[in-house]
Every structure is written in structure tokens, then in C-alpha cells.
Amino acid sequence: KTQLLDAISARMPTVYNDYYEPFIGGGSVLLFLRPEKAYINDTNEQLINLYIQIRDNAESVIEVVTELDSSPCDKEMYYKIRERYNTKITSNELDFECAALMIWINKHCFNGLYRVNGKGLFNVPYNNKVRGKSIDEENLNAISEFLQSYDISIYCKDFEIVCRDVQRDDFVYLDSPYVPVNDTADFTDYTKDGFTLEDHERLAELFHRLDSIGAKVMLSNNDVPLVHSLYSGYNIQKLDVKRMINSNAAKRTGKEVLITNY
Predict the structure, then answer these.
(1) Hey, which residues does 237 pair with through a beta bridge?
(2) CA 208, 153, 19, 239 torsion: positive or negative?
(3) How far is CA 137 from the centre of its chain?
(4) What pTM value is reported for the model?
(5) Is residue 116 a contact partner of residue 102, using CB atoms and an 8 Å limit?
(6) CA 252, CA 193: separation in Å to the nearest integer?
(7) What is the pLDDT of residues 186-238, one digit of tens each?
């Protein structure tokens, strides 16, 4: 969401109470806003573990990634580390090593894509990156300090559950997996359960419910008819964006929307 930060900032409410982000993803909006009190969430257990480990064990995470970076990465090494990471997933070992492996793999997999199969195992191929740093120690330590110093609650639950305590004048940013841009595209598979059409309909219902209690809500998604239909009557701003993870360079552009109820 880094490329959308200017647009998001321009459309943010100037005053709000607590901040909620039920689909935290890479956390760029959270780290840009740096709210004093926030509730962040994602259903990807490994991603939530990453935030927890950065908060609590940043030094250990950095040490493991640095050790992995000390050796040149070839195809054999990548798949060996990917298998090691998937073993952690299968064993539900949510620790600092699992977080470090996730960071390292993200820098060595195709287009930095995070995708899992039906069993929840990471299956993105190697990107042929042999050398280079996989981590910015100063940045990671700064994130760790932020998560420790501010009142940031971290959850791994369904988005509706996390939003049950939202009150009037709280700010909720909804950045769910996007609706596919065409009929042949699949709904996303960042988690083994995916994010279905029914989930998008539930999300729209949540948006309406939060609006009805006086919360300030912003949502981002693809600029497609279904999204316009689900959020008809709200303020919809169209945006041109770059799609850096599309395998076809000619298709690395797209249109998104920012939707607000204020």
C-alpha cells in the first residue's frame, strides 16, 4: 500500500479515537499513521507471528536472517529453506525462526508473492536472487520499538470478530484480499481458506454496520462492478496503481478505489 499512502492520507479523517486494521498485511498504513492505540489483525498465522516476533524478539530474527544471507542462495538452497519453513508451518511452530524464514523467503521468491496451497504450505518458486541483504536492521528495530512503545493489540481472528468492539469515531481501514479483476481470475489464496465472494459480502455488511454506529471507515479494493455494487451510496475515489507482482509486465497497471463513509 506504499504507493497509495498519499491518497489514503488525503482521505483520512482528521480526528479519530482508536485505529483498527483487520487486514494488516505489510503494515504500511499502520506504520505511516503510527497511532497511539491500535488493533491489528490478519488470518495469516505466519504473518501475525512475524509482527509478534519483531515486537518481542527482533534481535533473534535479525540474527537468523543475517546468517542465511551469509551464504549465496542457489535454487537448491531456496527450496531447502522453503521446505524448512513449511515444516514450521505444519508443526505450528510460531517462533522467531519461523518469522525470520518468512522474511528471507519473501526476498528470494518470485515477485515477493505470498501464496499457499490447499494445505496451507508456501509454494512460490525461486526468483534466482543469489546475493543481497534480506533485511534492514535499522528499520526492523524501529518497527519493534514502535510496537513495544505504543498500545498495539495484535490478533489472528476473523475480521468481524476483531471489529466487534469498534465504537463511534474510531477509524477502521479495511484492506481485504481484493475482488478479482475479471471472471477468470481466482479469489486470493494468501491463506489456505482463501477469501470468498461470501467473505466480500460479509465485509460489505460490516462496512454498513460500522457506518451505522458512527465509526469512520475507509476501504480499498479493485475498481470492478462488484465493489461498486457492494458499496453503492458511499464516497468512491478511483486511483491508478502499479501491479508489481503480475507475471506479465504489460499488465502491471490497474485501477483501484478508496471508499469512505465520511
Answers:
(1) 258
(2) negative
(3) 20
(4) 0.91
(5) no
(6) 26
(7) 555 445 667 888 999 999 999 999 999 999 999 999 999 999 999 999 999 99
